[in-house]
Amino acid sequence: MVLLEERIRKDGKVYPGSILKVDSFLNHQMDVTLLNDMGREFKNIYSDCEVNKILTIEASGIGIACITAQFFNCPVLFAKKTKTKNISGMVYKTQVKSYTHGTTYDVIVSKEFLSKNDKVLIIDDFLAEGNALLGLIDLCRQAGAEVVGCGIAIEKGFQPGSQRINNVGVRVESLAVIDSMDDGEIKFR
Amino acid sequence: MVLLEERIRKDGKVYPGSILKVDSFLNHQMDVTLLNDMGREFKNIYSDCEVNKILTIEASGIGIACITAQFFNCPVLFAKKTKTKNISGMVYKTQVKSYTHGTTYDVIVSKEFLSKNDKVLIIDDFLAEGNALLGLIDLCRQAGAEVVGCGIAIEKGFQPGSQRINNVGVRVESLAVIDSMDDGEIKFR
Lengths: 189, 189
Hints:
The structure is a homodimer. Chain A has helices at 2-11, 32-45, 61-72, 131-143, 161-167, and strands spanning 13-15, 19-21, 29-30, 53-57, 76-82, 91-97, 104-110, 119-127, 146-156, 172-180, 187-188. The first copy, chain A, is of the alpha/beta class. The A-B interface holds A 23-25, 28-33, 35-36, 58-59, 62-63, 65-67, 69-70, 73-78, 80, 109-110, 112-113 and B 23-25, 28-33, 35-36, 58-59, 62-63, 65-67, 69-70, 73-78, 80, 109-110, 112-113. Strand 3 of chain A pairs antiparallel with strand 5 (76-82) of chain B.
């Protein structure tokens, strides 16, 4: 998506260790006009698919997910990160390892809102190692829900996330795929 | 807002201790069509005000804030809850006491995205004690930003939040104000 690539080039900040900060328009401050263009693009990509629920994970996926849901006329469900040890039987639970923080946390959704009747599009802002997405796919499969695919804003194409998601049989579509960020120069696929 | 009150009556669940769960349509699963109606209503209420930024707090405020921002043609900034002790000088920081959890946490926004040029509408899903809103107002005032007002989905009118926000000179508009929930029966103002 040219518009997103241009914006990343203009306002993204590259730091050593392949860190890309896009917090001026995507995941701290959010440019809702851009999110709208992204939501429309996700709809174009998945126009042939029946989607009746969008699933994301708190916090930075929620904005894109809600704006995108307007194009699919469906509700959004966001998975919650939790440290609560004693979770009741009312939730589906999985574990996600944070590549950035080196920690593992539990992610839950209420059983009430995910079922075998759901055709789920998973939306998130970033894809790198793919651990969060694998967790969300696991939650869907525990519920018997069908995962139609994943829609990602920015994919780090030099990390294995996309391949790992494909390996569990799920389609991934990313609006901007970065192939390298060496010396602070961003190269898109 | 009649539509929201009807939805609370239909799908809200009241538990002992004046706990209202609306996670089927507002803060876990989100009915984006309803959020749209709410965003339009916030725009109607604040139509006479110049708003150039919407501020909310992660996670459950983000969806409403993003949908609402479409009506104001402005970006959304969400404050982050953090436990990181050593925050650099790059953020405004405040403390918020959680009424529900009995804990205090730090809330931050990047200094880059809040300034004296901003006219801020604060959006959140719930207002009870008002601690989160007071924290967000504090962040705005540290930045020299003007707080135009607060837009709340559901206010527990029997708790002092609204009065406490007014006491610091800020307008509060809530789409549904609950006066009592005794014996599981919700009475709106």
